[in-house]
């Protein structure tokens, strides 16, 4: 498999030697470069054989060896991405099972499954990160089997930390809200301490107003955003609440109002309709839905073909 070594690496090396007055015979440098090229080519040949044989993990290891010798080898980088995609496709059922275990709070079992995936691809950045996080969480809680509200929130929060899509805000919100719900559970306190020790920036950017409960504070912030016409920020804050408490009627009402304020009437109607299913006798929600239906009807009438349009 052919690949060229970028000459810039060698020229920069020569420049460094000249500046530092390090004396090396030119013939030695040529010999070293030739040796390097030969080793890189050997790694490419071996990687190709592994790749062709379906041993993508070993192929990735060889491509990584190439990058250690020459970090500018773009072919190696591209082939790592390609081989990594093959590994993930080949093991998609095992990956799906792993994330299901995370959602269920079965962290010790998840780590065992993750080890298999790491055997296939030892340098996979996501899997390596998850391995480190699980190894710290398991001594605190190998399996979250508690059915209390606090632990249901913990599970939702840790999904943002260990799940397929990383969401550190969800993790932080979930852990501090669950600690508020059950302040006597030392495991939750330890999990929160672990998270904030690794991500201290989270604690500095969103401090709850003294004297307020977590959800009270979030609702207060979202309402102020709505009053100020900052509907995008209100949507973000309300979604933070609903990630943890998806049946929170107050937040669903305000989320619909925020979308309505942004002109997203279909989305507002969808949110309010979902809220009405949770609270069928809510008169305010019924009024909201009447309002959005009237607004949509008015818009459709004004945009009908019989109405002259402004150009």
Descriptive notes:
By secondary structure, this protein is mainly α. It has 3 domains: about 5-20 and about 25-90, Alpha Horseshoe (Serine Threonine Protein Phosphatase 5, Tetratricopeptide repeat); about 90-205, no CATH class; about 215-300, Tetratricopeptide repeat domain (Serine Threonine Protein Phosphatase 5, Tetratricopeptide repeat, Alpha Horseshoe), CATH 1.25.40.10. The protein contains 16 helices and no strands. It has helices spanning about 5-20, 25-50, 55-70, 75-90, 90-105, 105-120, 125-135, 150-160, 170-180, 185-200, 200-205, 215-225, 230-245, 250-260, 265-280, 285-300. Helix 2 (about 25-50) runs antiparallel to helix 3 (about 55-70), helix 5 packs antiparallel against helix 6 and helix 6 (about 105-120) packs antiparallel against helix 7. The longest helix has 27 residues, at about 25-50. It is elongated, with a radius of gyration of 28 Å. It starts with 6 loop residues before the first helix and ends in a 9-residue tail after the last helix. Residues about 1-30 and about 305-310 have low confidence and may be disordered.
Write a short abstract of this structure.
By secondary structure, the protein is an all-alpha fold. The protein has helices at residues 7-19, 26-52, 56-69, 74-90, 92-103, 107-120, 125-137, 149-162, 168-181, 186-198, 200-205, 214-227, 231-244, 249-261, 265-278, 283-302. The chain contains 16 helices and no strands.
